[in-house]
Each structure stands twice: as C-alpha cells, then as structure tokens.
Amino acid sequence: MRPCxxxxxxxxxxxxxxxxxxxxxxxxxxxxxxLEPESELEAEAxxxxxxxxxxxxxxxxxxxxxxRTFRYIIVRRCQNFHTAQRVCSRCYRGRLASIHSYRxxxxxxxxxxxxxxxxxxxxxxxxxxxxxSVFCYWSDRSGWNYAYWLHGYPLLTGxxxxxxxxxxxxxxxxxxxVRLPFICEY
Length: 186
Description:
The relative contact order is 0.16. The protein has 2 domains: 3-35, no CATH class; 49-185, Mannose-Binding Protein A, Chain A, CATH 3.10.100. The chain has helices at 3-12, 38-48, 81-92, 102-115, and strands at 56-63, 68-79, 95-96, 120-130, 133-138, 160-165, 171-174, 180-185. The protein has 4 helices and 8 strands; from the N terminus they run H-H-E-E-H-E-H-E-E-E-E-E. It has a 4-stranded antiparallel sheet with strand order 1-2-8-3, with helices on both faces. A hairpin with a 5-residue loop joins strand 6 and strand 7. The chain is of the alpha+beta class.
C-alpha cells in the first residue's frame, strides 16, 4: 500500500503502525513519509465517487434479433480505462460497454457525440498482440462477434484498451491510462 494511505488508515485506527514500515524491521517516521499533494488525493477520491446524475445520460437499446433490451449509461466525467471499469462496476453494477452490432454501435456513437465534449469514449474492448495478429476480447467476457475498427487498427504493438470515436463510430486502440468519458452497460 502507498505510505499516505497507510498513514491515513493508521490515524483512523483501521491499520496498525506496523504497516507503515519501510522495510521488514524499519519503521518509517511520520516526517519521513512522502505524502502526495492534496490535489492528487482529491483526484483519486473523485475518481472513485459515483458520477452525479448531471454527468450521465441513460440509454436503452432493444436488439431486434433477440428482443433483449440493453441498458447503457454515458458518463461525461473523464477517467482512465481501469477507473472507468471500477466506476461501472461499483456505481451501476455493470461493465464498460461491449458492442455486438452495427445498430448498437451507431446508436451509442450518436448519443455520445450529442452528450460528450470529447471525440472518443471508452468501451470495454481490450487487445493484445499474439504473434503477427491481435487478440481482441470484451472485458465482460461476452463473445467477440462484431468489430468496427478504423483502418490501421487495432494496433499490434502492445496491449491496448479501445475507444469509440464519436464522429464516425470507428474504434481505435488507445493507451489505457488516457482519461476519457466512458459508456457503461448494466
């Protein structure tokens, strides 16, 4: 755990001071602990808070083939991929959206374009290279039966997360640490 978190837990009485040890037999003194700036702590706390209703847009899409209705929520608050995934799970009991049809892709793209002041939003696809090709999968473990990649994507140079372009609906490989709005499916 990070020293600042351990210090806070120790002060609250939920962790013992032993956890603050810099090594197996050394105990770090409070003045030796490297504390994060308050702005970073506030940003981390904000990242874990559920978005306000004003920061979201709900959308239901019924798939004609299956007659199933899928519920989505577009979140305008920018997060990295992994934080967005945690917010979807904790706040909506869902995951980042998996897209299985052109119709759903277009509906999500149009709604995101109208509601988000950014050219891209996170969706739940992850890619990684396998030899000279790429392995694509959804973070919710649903089947990979549809893709709408921009020409030249997905990238084969490493593990990437995926964004939906709000201008043309095409998908792009994006570094997972980039902070963007996102779409949850729940």
